[in-house]
Structure formats: structure tokens, C-alpha cells
Amino acid sequence: MSRRLVVLGAPGAGKGTQAARISEHLGIPTISTGALFRSHMAARDELGTLVAGYIDAGNLVPDEVTTRMVAERLAEPDVVEGFILDGYPRNLAQAEQLDVMLADRPLDAVVEFVVDTEAVVERLLRRAEIEGRSDDTADVIRHRIEVYHENTAPLVDHYRGRGLLLEVDAMGQIDDVTERTLAALENA
Q1: Which member of 38, 68, 90, 160 is catalytic?
Q2: Residue of 9, 5, 12 whose CA lies nearest to 149
């Protein structure tokens, strides 16, 4: 079964949930760029200070900083048997850098969790209400989804062209999505 994976999906597609479940099933770590950012910022190390500066200013963390963090994480011994990348790559430049990092152990598959936009808007509005996130309005959520598709469409095409893309219907019950994902990976 595929063990070096990338997960893609619009906000609210359930990437994090499914990555955690697949990680547990396969016994490999999930590497989330968000978690890496938080970890480095909490450690107040060089990368953490750099990342905090961008985030505190409301800016995106530059590709080279994110790529450096991911490269360091991929050099750790627990990823020898495989890994799931969540949140990286986000664009073609990062995908090219990832290819360089993984020259001797290339990706096995890229899973795109496909969702219905309006259903995801509803899902995220419910989550925002539960978490008390008043900034997540329907318009803001739709915009985030639109930006995701604009930025990620070339990435999806890139991985489809390389025969690595597995599209998984991410609508429905969490267990059903996990089953569909594992079946797609089994057949990849």
C-alpha cells in the first residue's frame, strides 16, 4: 500500500481528520505544516521566530521557509517507512521542491478529497458556530474555497499528469470517507 502520501482538499474537506485516520491505520506520521509552524513558534527557535514574524504581520509564510521546515521534518527517522503530508505542497514551486527532497524515495500517491462547495460551506459554518469563530461567514468561507481551487488546480493537474492523483469523494460519514480512501490507496 502507498506509504508516501500528500493529502489535498478544500477547507472543510476533512483532510486533517482523514490524514489522522490513515496515519493510524498505516502506522506512519502525519506531517502538517500548521503543526510544524506551531511547534517551531512554541520552541522559539530560529524558524519559529521567522514564522511568527510573518504570521503576526498577517502574511503568508514564504515557500522557502515552509520548504525548509518540511525538509528538516522529512529527514527525521520516523518517516523512513512513510508519511502523510497535510498542507504541503500548496503550489507548483513547492511540489518541485518536494520532488527534489524525495529524489531517492518519491511520492506514492496524492489524495484529493473532493467535496461539494455548498455542503462544505454549511459544514464550516456549523464548525465556526461551535468554535465561536464569528469571522467565518459564508462569504469568507466561499472565498477561502475559491482561493484554494485557484492555487491548487495547477497542483492537481501536475499530480494527475504524473499518474499520482487519487480523487476521493469526501462527502458523507467520516468512516465511509476513510474506507473509500483506504480502498483507493490499496488499488493505487
Answers
A1: 90
A2: 9
